[in-house]
Design brief:
Two copies of one chain form a homodimer. Chain A is of the alpha/beta class. Chain A contains 35 helices and 33 strands. Chain A is 47% helix and 17% strand.
């Protein structure tokens, strides 16, 4: 405490750089004041005063009180009114405002200064008793809740019962007398519950409110909020006390909201809505329809011009699109708030690009302005927003794969396939999907499942295909026989052939056939991507298993394939039969025979990918899945297979039992399977090199760069044994064909042990690493992705993990394994190529980490490629800024 | 190649330090020669000659040949005979012998020098045509196999058919003429198969044999053997050529085997067997019963005295018990071989202790002489070896838990319990055991299962209890209803109540009731343990869940409990009911109510352990198991539980389905469960501290040192959240009781991530670490212990892992996580207490690693405590030797 220290600042005494002592809101109001904008006057009690409040045992210090009294007197002088004056009262709002925005803290109190006397004065001055009594009612309710700790129900109950008695539907149907009655009842309730009266002295009201704001700094919600958001080192909250202005004092008054640019499209055109003789609440209540702010130009050209002028000024000042609240009180325009406006992804991109063109911001700033994750919206077909606003949401599931889908409901994969073939748009609705559904999923516009999470089969496959998917929609039940879908909570029944619409970005399911909008990858989006690539240093590849995916990814800017999962290729049509033959084969010869049937398919797959990528690197991961994934689980399917394969059910069941694993995640798969049955990888290696030779021979591509990747390696020997076999096959083929193929053999780093012995794996001949961060997270943190959903959400809530480690890479833990592996790997081979191909590869924070740690590339699903490109650029820009900061 | 270089050494020209050029066998023969022992003369062609053989393209170099011819001439001179002489032939043996013993290489060829002429000479000289022709037959057979690459079947077939024709049961029933017929047929077979004659020139025979030995150095078996055993840097094998001597040339000839001490008991008494007028094979054939070597003292005092003298000399020379082969040829004693004798564990200990007492070896040497794993034999009851030699083995399973058991067969846990209560010895025979069988397992003398591996429920629990167990005995099938056990391959049926005997150290199952011998922990064993403790620096604790286990472990020298698994305590009797109530509870209150029922049991458990350990540290791991382990899986059991708990089957099934996990290993267990349901650990913490206060208050112990351990920690927050709760409970209890309790709260390090953030976990307050190397191996290497059996054996065979990583700690991989965790942990808290409590804790190589890495203690099952004590001492001795070596 210091007598000479300044604790209370009039708005005009502060500026935007004083957030630490004025809080965010206070500094912002001060900044606007300094811009010469007509903000209702007021003052801010500093965060230092809050700290002092706690130091002296939760008491407002005398010096603070003294300075507050002075500022209040100045405010009264400015406004020509006295706080709570019986004839023409000054009313104020009291708001908290810390350095960081903290929704967990106290709400606003409005209309402070009203009491039994000044309410009458206000009635007279405004000539609007209803307004005066409603304002008083609101004050008592807010004050009662926030300052006097009354329950919300206490007041709502009274309000509702009076409305019932009076036959009022909306609050606005209540008369001044009704509101007077409510005020009386509110006061009596406070007396009854708390044993004290609602304070009538305006100055007492104000100090009690200031106390309440200071106390709210350390309430449970606020403390938890700071904990969860790792907000540290703050000393307290500021308190903003500001004169109230009213938009409902007659036809020369009004209130509105405006944006300096269109927040939906980003168009550089003034945009907003207002109502004359109204308060903000009236807009929300939806009884009167607000007018477009453009009409204000005719209705009140002077005010309109002033507003546009202010908006331009503020936007130029903050160099970003502003969302502003304004009130006109008896012909005088006040700005109540200005802040960077929320916007759609499309608007975000357009505004950033436009601001650069307008030379308001730099390229670097523009890149940092856009949340990479938001780009997702732009890359998929969207439901028409106008149609959406009128449509009926019938169910809510998980937003498993973004995009929009509109189509007829079908209930089996085969129907989906058949109907799609005949040219219909279909949505496949299943309790859950399984690998056999692949063809049907491919044919559908969208997929809806009743069960399964964000990483269920449906979700993973749909994301891979870029197909819209809503998963885990628990409210639906499916009757496959009756061919109906029931929305349980609403009792709606939808039959096969009826239309529904899905929004895969929100998880919402709509009734009927909504309109859609296409994705646009050109225009501003294209500009942004080009800018990103100028800065970006880390490569961006894609995870793609089919030529189609590869083509989509290239359109999005992928610079190669970082992960082609070959097991998906084993499921389709006739292939699964050959795979099953291989599994059931009694000896090596029979296995080889079955594998020979798979070889032409595999070769075709790889040739297709090589052509689609035309000279870019294609990383092919050899079979990773355990064998049991290729056999059916249900009795019915086993019986069917028994007939088809002519193998008796008992033998099949015995094989399935034999292959069963307690922890398949840690099971007999990937290179382990290849150590037991090396002929599988032999076939794949042969298919890869033959495809490469063929496409090069046929001159379908300029060049071809296969990178063969061995999964689940945990020891050097696994790698060297398999590499030696592959090299032998590949070299023989190259020699025979006389066609030179550049190829590499590398390994996934997905078992923690592999990261720890990375140097030895490079010594054993690994030419590249690719981090499989999904499995690395599962094993490194001991979490099963299929199971951990049960507690991970709670873990994130309790801040045990900052983020779901399957969405955002756990840099603290798993990140260490990556660092260790890179350091060790490059200690042997300085230029070792290192990438990442887990689902994290398209997550912006992870991309930044990968850039920082010197990875050569990230690889992600096609639709995440643009996100990774932007995130890669942002990483560079932030690094530049950090370096500047350090200098 | 160097003309002046010596490639061939007469035995008397070498010594035991020349193993690199003479090979192990050659150096040993030379050493004996130098000791003045009558070894049949001979010479060694050096390993350098072998290297030269390969250098010049698989040809015997001229210089080598020259030197060999000279040495052969010298040998002929010494023996007064010529190789293959038609009248009185010198016969020789040819043997390979590298630096390291390599069973993968060529076998011995005996009787080289015989041909169609010299066989007649030999007949006459020995006056024993049968002997001569049999020797010739053997030569052709060995030579054919080893040198001429004939199949074994080629000769066996002829031998058998002649025996059939002649009505001969044993080879010894064949006459000289029969053998002559066989020789003729053998030679014809060689001619037919190989197109060449069996070589008649003795010198050609010898050089072909030398060639074969050199070639065998690089045959597939030998190369694989060197790879598997990491034998590197050797240049080749030596060849030993030695004059044959015969013990069957009359009554003044004989042959025998002797040990300088008793290999079964270790008694310092000359021991052995011999036969006069016999060859080694005669002993093996078992037609004549060999005599005790003691009888030789009377039969031939001169030879006996000479033999005893040699034995004493050789033992003193090698400072270890010797296993020697001797032959008396016409009254002359020859020693053919002397090597350190194989011995039982008891003999091993006694001999080591005696040799120290006799001042032949130092304490340090004695400690290194004993394989710690062998001690296992001494700690358990054994089947009487004499009874075993006469008993019938009816089945072979896995040696899952050592010891011997003799008892009546029962087929259910409840029968086991009931019969044991009435005083009978029972063996519980199950297809596989489950947690419900615990009581019955406890009551049984031994456990036999048809299914499950070394880490199956039966095996793990039995080892924990110290009960003999043979698991995974695939040849038996059990009919629980009929109460019979069938040995499938032999068709034997055993009924309930009939006796069988188990050897848990070999996995053998015997018919009937065999005698047993008790374990002995005193005497020489006690001396050895005392010596070990003198050297040992690392602490040895035990994994014990019951006061009984704790007492056993203390008898074995445990210095505390390193791991008490509390989940086992949840299964017994009435407790499982309360646990299930807790799981099915709908809300916190109901859960607390169920937990309150468990509290008194838990408190009693802990009090019992504290008393048993009387002031030693007791580390208690809080509940680790996932909840689904406590619910039944079979329909029948679910229905039963439904009745018992009065919860309908559907609800039960839904709960079981809800708790089901795809990868339980990575599931919702340990501290994760406690984050969701903190009341579980609250109850356990309360039970621990209340038990500690009680035993201290009642003065049942001098002091009490509970160490509370939190399992499956992967993040700092998990630890700090749970630690804070526990501290609050414990401190309140201490304050209330006014009894001071020293306690610690620490964590398992078993999730790789925990090792990587070990510093932060210590900052969060962890007072000790205990490595759970089972789980750390599972997660770190991505191996499921329940599944990996399918391929791990093959992995070890292919040397992908040097040892099964669940038996011997994978120091290269998982060891790094341990090192990282210790380094990081101690960077924050220098004196951080660190232990290991996985099953590896009692494995000698792992104990040495733990000593080297500065762990404070290892903890292992009670029966491994002595092993760990010895291994800990050996680690110190080896470290001392290494330091000396470096100086």
């Amino acid at each position: 405490m210091a007598k000479n220290k300044k604790y209370v600042y009039a708005f005009e005494e502060g500026n935007k750089d004083m957030k630490e002592i004025l809080g965010g809101k206070g500094a912002n109001l001060a900044e606007m004041k300094n811009l010469g904008i007509n903000v209702p006057p007021g003052f801010t009690i500093s965060t230092e005063a809050c700290a002092l409040y706690y130091e002296v045992g939760k008491k407002i210090n005398a010096e603070v009180k003294k300075q507050t009294d002075i500022k209040l007197a100045e405010l009264e002088k400015k406004m020509g009114k006295k706080l709570g004056d019986a004839n023409d009262p000054l009313l104020v709002s009291v708001r908290s405002g810390a350095f960081a925005s903290m929704p967990g803290m106290m709400d606003t109190i409005l209309n402070l200064g009203l009491n039994d006397k000044s309410v009458v004065g206000l009635s007279k001055v405004t000539n609007n008793p209803r307004f005066a009594w409603d304002s008083y009612r609101r004050l008592i309710q807010m004050f009662g809740n926030v300052v006097m700790d009354m329950g919300h129900g206490d007041f709502e109950h009274i309000l509702e019962s009076v409305k019932d008695t009076k036959g009022a539907k909306y609050d606005t149907d209540l008369t001044a007398d009704d509101l007077k009655e409510i005020v009386t009842k509110y006061k009596a309730k406070i007396k009854a519950v708390k044993g004290i009266e609602f304070p009538q002295e305006p100055i007492k009201q104000m100090y009690l409110a200031i106390n309440a704001v200071f106390n709210s700094w350390n309430n449970y919600r606020a403390i938890r909020y700071r904990e969860i958001n790792s907000i540290k080192g703050l000393i307290g909250t500021a308190v903003n006390i500001q004169a109230m202005v009213f938009g409902n004092l007659g036809d020369d008054s009004g209130t509105g909201v405006c944006f300096t640019r269109n927040p939906s499209t980003g168009e550089a055109k003034f945009y907003g809505e207002y109502l004359m003789n109204a308060q903000g609440e009236d807009v929300v209540a939806g009884i009167r329809t607000p007018l477009s702010v453009a009409t204000l130009a005719k209705a009140n050209p002077k005010i309109y011009k002033e507003l546009v002028g202010i908006c331009n000024k503020v936007e130029k000042h903050y160099k970003d699109m502003q969302d502003m609240e304004f009130t006109i009180e008896r012909g005088v325009l006040y700005i109540l708030q200005a802040r960077n406006g929320k916007r759609t992804a499309a608007a975000s991109v357009k505004i950033a690009v436009d601001l650069v063109k307008e030379k308001l911001i730099s390229l670097e700033t523009a890149l940092l302005r856009i949340d990479p994750n938001q780009l997702n919206q732009l890359l998929h077909k969207q439901l028409d927003p106008i149609a959406v606003s009128k449509a009926r949401v019938i169910a809510q599931g998980l937003p498993a794969s973004p995009g929009a889908a509109v189509g007829e409901v079908v209930f089996t994969a085969s129907e989906a396939f058949a109907k799609a073939k005949s040219g219909l748009d279909v949505i496949l609705v299943r309790t859950e999907t399984s690998p056999e559904d692949i063809d049907g999923m491919h044919s559908s516009k969208g997929i809806l499942t009743a069960r399964g999470g964000m990483t269920s089969h449906a979700a993973v496959v749909a994301r891979g295909m870029g197909t819209c998917c809503v998963a885990g929609c628990a409210d639906i039940s499916i009757d496959e026989k009756a061919k109906t879908l029931t929305i349980k909570s609403q009792g709606i029944v939808i039959k096969e052939g009826e239309f529904i619409s899905l929004d895969g970005s929100t998880g919402k399911v709509y009734e009927g056939k909504l309109g859609t909008q296409d994705a646009s990858l050109l225009g501003n989006f294209g500009v942004l991507m080009n800018w990103s690539d100028k800065f970006r240093k880390i490569g961006v590849r894609t995870n793609a298993d089919t030529p189609h995916d590869a083509e989509v990814a290239r359109k999005f800017g992928a610079e190669g394939i970082g992960l082609c999962r070959t097991e998906h290729m084993f499921f389709e049509g006739a292939r699964i039969k050959a795979v099953r033959e291989m599994i059931l084969a009694g000896d090596l010869e029979a296995r080889k025979k079955a594998l020979a049937k798979l070889y032409p398919y595999q070769k075709g797959d790889f040739a297709g990918l090589f052509e689609a990528m035309d000279g870019l690197a294609v990383t092919i991961r050899l079979l990773d899945a355990p064998l049991h994934e290729f056999l059916p689980k249900e009795k019915k399917d086993i019986e069917e297979l028994s007939k088809e394969m002519k193998v008796d059910v008992k033998t099949l069941e015995a094989k399935i039992e034999d292959l069963h694993e307690f922890n398949p995640m840690l099971g007999h798969r990937g290179c382990r399977l290849a150590i037991t049955y090396p002929e599988i990888y032999d076939m794949q290696a042969m298919a890869i090199i033959d495809a490469a030779i063929e496409v090069k021979k046929n001159k379908k591509v300029k060049s071809v760069k296969p990178e063969i990747m061995i999964p689940i390696v945990a020891t050097t020997k696994e790698f060297s044994i398999l590499k030696d076999r592959i090299v032998k096959i590949v070299e023989a083929k190259i020699k025979e064909s006389k066609i030179k193929i550049e190829y590499k053999i590398g390994t996934m780093i997905e078992v923690p042990r592999a990261a720890l012995i990375a140097d030895k794996i490079v010594e054993a001949g690994a030419e590249f690493f690719s981090f499989g961060t999904n499995d690395l997270t599962q094993m490194g943190a001991g979490l099963s992705r299929d199971d951990a959903g049960k507690f991970l959400k709670e873990y994130v809530n309790q801040d045990i993990f900052a983020y779901d480690p399957f969405e955002v890479l756990d840099q603290e833990g798993i990140g260490q394994l990556i660092k260790i592996a890179i350091k060790k790997g490059r200690s042997v081979k300085k230029d070792l190529k290192v990438g990442i191909c887990g689902e994290h590869g398209g997550e912006p924070k992870t991309v930044e980490f990968c850039h920082r740690e010197g990875l050569n590339y990230v690889s992600c699903s096609p639709f995440r490629v643009p996100i990774a490109r932007l995130a890669g650029a942002q990483a560079v820009v932030r690094e530049m800024l950090n370096k500047k900061g350090k200098k």
